[in-house]
Cellobiose dehydrogenase (Irpex lacteus), 777 residues
Amino acid sequence: MLRRTLLALLPLIGTALSQSASNYIDPDNGFQFTGVTDAETQVTYGVTFPPLATSGAQSTEFIGEVVAPVAAKWVGIALAGAMLQDLLLVAWPNAGKIVSSTRIASDYVQPTAYTGAATLTTLPETTVNATHWKWVFRCQGCTSWTSPSGSTGSISVDGSGVLAWAYSSVGVDDPTDPESTFQEHTSFGFFGIDYSQAHTSNYQNYLDGNPGTPTSAPSGPSSTTTTVPTGPTTPAVAYDYIVVGAGPGGIIAADRLSEAGKKVLLLERGGPSTKVTGGTYVPSWAGSTGLTKFDIPGVFESMFTDSNPFWWCKDVTVFAGCLIGGGTSINGALYWYPNSDDFSTAAGWPSSWTNHGPYTAKLKARLPSTDHPSADGKRYLEQTADLVGQLLKGQGYSNITINDNPDYKDHVYGYAAYDFLGGLRGGPVATYLQTALARPNFTLKQYTLVTNVVRNGSTITGVQTNDTSLGPNGIIPLTKNGRVILAAGSLQTPRLLFQSGIGPTDQINLVKGNTDAASRLPPQSDWINLPVGYNAQDNPSINLVFTHPSIDAYDNWADVWTNPPSADVAQYLGSRSGILASASPRLNFWRAYGGSDGVVRYAQGTVRPGAASVNTTLPYNASNIFTITVYLSTGIQSRGRVGIDASLRAKPLVNPWLVDPVDKQVLLQALNDVVSNIKSIQNLTLITPDVHQTIEEYVDAYDPATMNSNHWVSTATIGTSASNAVVDQNTKVFNTNNLFIVDASIIPHLPVGNPHGALMSAAEQAAAKILALAGGP
């Protein structure tokens, strides 16, 4: 059979929220287990052990069960809470039976068969029906193991520890083969367990097929979430700077701080992305190169259609990347050098920030832009650029190289500019992170979830994580005068602040309502009331879909991940050239509009072959479609709010799109202007909306959820007063002594283009200001 590319299973302690095990009785077989039910996947995991020995060695076996809906195509349990070096039990249903195996991995590769003494036996209580499958099993010789590298691991049956689970909605490659390969899990998590309470005097009865004498326990396991596992701890290493989040802001700040000789720890809740970071999610056609989905620009569109999208944060309700590089590892990589308006006082920046030139120059020196990303210097699939360029010329636009004059953003168009390097995704991962990693005073930890900062009044003393190997109870301390920098992004940084007792009272009270998170809140007298989550902005964006016989839609990018054209594959793998060396956008344009309120707003357009969706009554050739996405950027007045819900998911609370009526007027004008001279180009047809719907009707009916551009800013905005801002001119959180923020949440107003160029310049400037601020380490 055709075998898919094998993926490295991520370590299982990491991005998911953990749980605490509790005792329950399976209502079908009467067995008492200690375990959990995961709230997201609705899979139950339970274990039970023989009675503790009063003398001599303890038993080396246990009985376990997994109860899963049929949507669970395979499930795994790691017996000490991490993938590497741990015994892994994997199972899936096939033809009414359960197929299972023991595995182990010594590196981030496909786990191999475990050849040690562990023996799995499926017990008769196992069932498979139309809605669920239940695997009840005996695992003998499973409380200790030796990995292929020679390291050993074990379960402390009379102590406490961590169990981890992996879940996949994608089936294994050969369900008849217990040693089948499989793709990376689609969800995972872990739970703390007190093994000393997971023993039963009825153990032999269970093996004989009867429940014995029942004990008092609930009929189902706990699904209460918590974020700090129980388990062994080690002495903590203290750091001068702890940076939370390895997105663009965090990577650049960490690089510059370590360059200055500071001892820096960079924490990322997700795992690797590109090949150089250890990523292994490689398309089958690029297997020999090791280049991943996050390396190859041309597979960008598949980020949103892949059946195994492990890179998205599961506890954020909008798109957010949980992996090394954050958004810069998964976005379209459009890269615009900031202009003078982007850092102006009119945009909300303190006056000390307006001279962005030296910091943007530093950024450009490390990461130059290109509008011809193919390594051979040529441009490919440019029919949309040629056609829309002709349309815009008829509207008085000028054709320029956009990043040659960042301040020229009215009636201009040009080829899309990227931060790709040599036909590969570049960004801060390929540049700043690599120089940081070369320094002995820099440490990167992946799969480390920070839930809150630990503080004593206004002073931060460390961060709370899910990894007890980094410090007692997962707490990582600061050195004397040390500092914490939050760089988790515009939705997750606010959540970290709420969980640290910083922000509006209504949000902190939601944290207080979560039993586990509440235990880590400071006293209410130490809560800091700041407008965290308010003032949120994101570009409202509307897609117009056209058709023209000259356009090559590249099969709407449908097969770029699985089976792109062989000639394009050969060209790209041979020289990093051709269509696959670029993401889908081909042209960008800007126009300034004076609103009826006297405010100048900018409209930006992005042109690409293909379309995310088509809604039309007109006949059309799908091979000839293309999209113009029109955004509003600098000057928009609409604001929203982000926050959390009772389950602590980060989410928009008030949508920020077209709240201001003049914003909507200007966007409608911009859309109508784009199509104003469509008849000047023969056979150019607007099909979404089509002739049966006006632009105004189309926008009125537009789903707000699809208006989201995922360019969130200003949720922890910079300013001069705690009454209307969260951080001061040095990016220090008001009313704290040593807590800083360096990510898009501090940007007070949307920049004129896609924000990641402005964000990286801001990170350069923020790092310089933090280092220059007295009182640090």
Q: What stands out?
A: Residues 233-273+311-370+427-534+712-777 form a domain with the FAD/NAD(P)-binding domain fold (CATH 3.50.50.60). Residues 195 and 704 are 48 Å apart (CA to CA).
